[in-house]
Amino acid sequence: MNQNLENYCPQNPQYVLDDIVREEFPLELDFINAVHGEKLETKRDVMKFIGRTLTATFPETEYVTRVMDDKEKSAIRAEYCQLVENILPERKRQLEEALEEAKRMKKEAEERYASALQEVATMAAEVKLGTVEQKLKGSDTFTIAIAGYYLTYTWNEARKVFVLAKGYEVPDTSEIWSSDENNRAQMLDLFGVEFSEPQPKAQIKDFDGDF
């Protein structure tokens, strides 16, 4: 809407009403001349009278539809003629440039789309695998050698215990002999869990060609 018409209203506006409403109800209520015995001269007087006598509401933001007058039509025609003369040619030029640019952008968009598809496929594969690598906090974690295995325990705050997070066999048990012996003794003393002594792995002899 033209900004000059933003708060404009004709002196005698014509409101759009359904036929049944127009036929069934009075189109005007002349309180000033209808009320006798009370002096009503202004809109303020009439509104006070309505408030005292009728059960009515007084909405702040009621929107209705009315018929445009010639002033409004002329102003809007002038505005869209200006759009045709000044704005449309420039917008058409922008459209043509955009179509040219779209040829270049299409390839980039297709590449980004393919990249997103690959990212989705990668994440879906991770979900299907169902595991994830997690870096443990050094302040919450310890590793011990026991029964021929390295065991890594980390602190579980919810349960207030250390839980086993990783375990793998020691390649050469001779390297951990003393620590393994101590750890087995401590586990037995602290938790009543007994572990067997790690057995040295069998040595594979070099093939000398003889059977």
Give the topology:
Blueprint: H1 19-24, H2 31-34, H3 43-53, H4 70-129, E1 141-146, E2 149-156, E3 161-169, H5 177-191
Antiparallel strand pairs: 1-2, 2-3
Describe the structure.
The structure is a single chain. The protein has 211 residues and is mostly helical. It has 3 domains: 3-68, no CATH class; 69-132, no CATH class; 138-191, no CATH class. Helix content is 45%, strand content 11%. The protein is built from 5 helices and 3 strands; from the N terminus they run H-H-H-H-E-E-E-H. The chain has helices at residues 19-24, 31-34, 43-53, 70-129, 177-191, and strands at residues 141-146, 149-156, 161-169. Strands 1-2-3 form a 3-stranded antiparallel beta sheet. The model has no long low-confidence stretch (mean pLDDT 86).
Radius of gyration: 45 Å
Number of strands: 3
Helix/strand structural class: mainly alpha
Number of helices: 5
Shape designation? elongated
Strand order of the largest sheet: 1-2-3
* Secondary structure: helix percent: 40-55%
Q: Topology as H/E string?
A: HHHHEEEH
Low-pLDDT runs of 5+ residues are: none
Mean pLDDT: 86
